[in-house]
Amino acid sequence: MTFSPSKRPPINRLHHPQTPSNVLSPPKQEGVLIGGQIYWNPATVANPHGCIIGGSGAGKTQTLKAIAWEVSKLAQVAIIDFHGDQELPGETCYNVNMKSNAGINPMRLNLDQEGGGPNLRAIELAMLFKKTLTLGANQEAKLLDCFKHCYFRRGISQESHESWLKVPPNFSDLENLLEEMAGEDKEAEKLRLKLSTIFEYGIFNKTQPINQTLTRWNLSKLPPQLQAIAGDALASQLMSHHRLLGESTLRTVLFIDEAKELGHSKALDRIAADGRKYGLGLWVASQSSRHISKDVLTNTFTKLVLPVDSSELPVTARTFRFSEEAIANLNPLESLVRFGKNANKVNIVPFYQRNTP
């Protein structure tokens, strides 16, 4: 069974028989087809989060694209694309690079009165930059003060929630501030030099477009450090937006291939922990479970294991509770699929075999 854009199958209740994890017998299900008779139904699983692990050539990218394509018929989809290979029919693609008009503003605020505002965002950004750019303690402290001052110059204060609605600063504000300080402050000058590559790319100075029904953020032309900052900002903004919308059934699913490019992102941890409540799902894919944080793995109900490199067999078997032999015997586009306690083996229907326009 495959889907076409003109005809959407109903989402019926999934049935997961209580079979031991070593007994792989596929139940009949309906929802988002994974392969065989195995379907993923976001309306009935414990949470709408998924994780795919697979080595090079295993079919990981094709699997993630297939699921994203089918989910786009049920909910909004946002894709953070680090390699430029996640294109889907009907998408709105924002190419983020030095020459494009589209940018990303990491300084956009979370408007939640209890967990947002300029001070918290300044702290989050300073911590992210410390990890991404390997800043020292003095540089981190200086950057924190600079972020706060950028908000202050725009008339945005932690105490006035109304001020949070003003146009936020971007990295042009940060660059100008550091240039002003550099003449008399050696630490500011060091920090300005450290951030010079980021300022040169200019992607954090440009206008950020809004997400559409099916949006792909193509970050493939950026260096890894900028990819990590941009990806974390997008994930953080999605979580903040959905929290403001309030509790809901599934509204949006965020898909990320090569999750290692984000490191152990706190934004992804928050989505995995609280996204379900606010209608936000998360699907991540990587070549190794070590690239994905413990919080994301723990809070992900649906897990797919494709063939992995032999060096990854022990950790993959322990993490996903399959035998090493079962994983080692997988062929490309064959997967062990776990819904909570229940497991099945399935032949994936890759994206290129799906009915698309």
UniProtKB/TrEMBL annotation:
Keywords: ATP-binding, Nucleotide-binding. PANTHER family: SLR6007 PROTEIN, UNCHARACTERIZED PROTEIN YJGR-RELATED. The keyword Nucleotide-binding applies. The keyword DNA repair does not apply. This is ATP-binding protein. InterPro entries: HerA_central, P-loop_NTPase, T4SS_component. Residues 1-27 are annotated as: Disordered. Residues 44-111 form the Helicase HerA central domain. It comes from Synechocystis salina LEGE 00031. GO terms for molecular function: ATP binding.
